[in-house]
Automatic annotation (TrEMBL):
Catalytic residues of the enzyme: S133 (for autocatalytic cleavage activity), K172 (for autocatalytic cleavage activity)
GO molecular function, one term: DNA binding
Gene that specifies this protein: lexA
Domain LexA repressor DNA-binding: 4-67
UniProt entry keywords in alphabetical sequence: Autocatalytic cleavage, DNA damage, DNA repair, DNA replication, DNA-binding, Hydrolase, Repressor, SOS response, Transcription, Transcription regulation
GO biological process: DNA repair; DNA replication; negative regulation of DNA-templated transcription; proteolysis; SOS response
Protein's recorded name: LexA repressor
DNA sequence: GGTAAAATCAAATCGAACGT
DNA sequence: ACGTTCGATTTGATTTTACC
């Protein structure tokens, strides 16, 4: 696996590093990191920096002040990093977090080589599918779906929809029929849901499906 | 058999000293 | 001023033990 998991603290340090370098052009000192995280010892910072270094997130120059550097952007030019923000399932309540830029809400991320998918990278997020309501659209339990943020949809598009009454998000095909909306499961055994446009909020459109067949 | 309490072990943190 | 190291301490998770 490409990515080792980071602890919350390491995430904090990493994003602080990124912001600091972004702002001042130079990396912060150990003590500045310490202060910003409210720690009482620099050794904690050192400890976590070592962890980060081992996992390949940073590089450190020994003997030099401000010797931390980020190995040029984990995200290389031809790779798009997409946050996996949660699980989507017909019927059960799932929040799609608003602030996708906050790493804290990411369950995980996936990296997709741009040559595999013809994508604009902005507004993308991914969800793990739970349930079988979309089997006839080649989406089944356990699949990873890549979505793009959107507030509107055309008829026939597959969208993630927030159902105001159920307080849930679900994946369905979208059809606007007169003054109501039909949310059609792509599963012959399941019935469509009819809702008023006021009761739903479109979260995003389906962009791609990733299915793992075996390990 | 099931579980709460106790023991154990590793990871994380601290505070201070030391090195450049 | 800044980075590094080290022993002691705390915290958290895991395993073992003891008891009903």
């Amino acid at each position: 696996m490409a990515k080792d998991k980071l602890t919350a603290k390491q995430q904090q340090i990493l994003s602080f590093l990124q912001e600091f370098i972004q702002e001042y052009g130079i990396p912060p000192t150990v003590r500045e990191i310490q202060r910003s995280l409210g720690l009482s010892s620099t050794s904690v910072v050192d400890y976590n920096l070592k962890q980060l270094e081992e996992k390949g997130y940073i590089t450190r120059n020994k003997n030099i002040s401000r010797g931390i550097s980020l190995p040029f952007k984990k995200v290389e030019e031809n790779v798009t990093t997409i946050p996996v923000v949660g699980v989507i399932a017909a019927g059960s309540p799932i929040e799609v977090p608003e602030d996708l830029s906050d790493p804290a809400v990411w369950a995980d991320t996936i990296e997709v080589n741009n040559s595999l998918l013809n994508l604009k990278s902005d507004g993308l997020f991914a969800l793990r599918v739970k349930g079988h309501s979309m089997v006839d659209a080649l989406i089944d339990d356990g699949d990873l779906i890549i979505m793009r943020h959107a507030n509107t949809a055309e008829n026939g598009e597959t969208v993630a929809v927030w159902l105001e009454k159920e307080k849930a998000t679900t994946l369905k095909k979208f059809y606007h029929e007169g003054d109501r909306i039909r949310l059609q499961p792509a599963n012959i055994t399941m019935q469509p849901i009819y809702v008023s446009p006021d009761d739903i909020q479109i979260q995003g459109k389906l962009v791609a499906v990733i299915r793992q067949i075996s390990k």
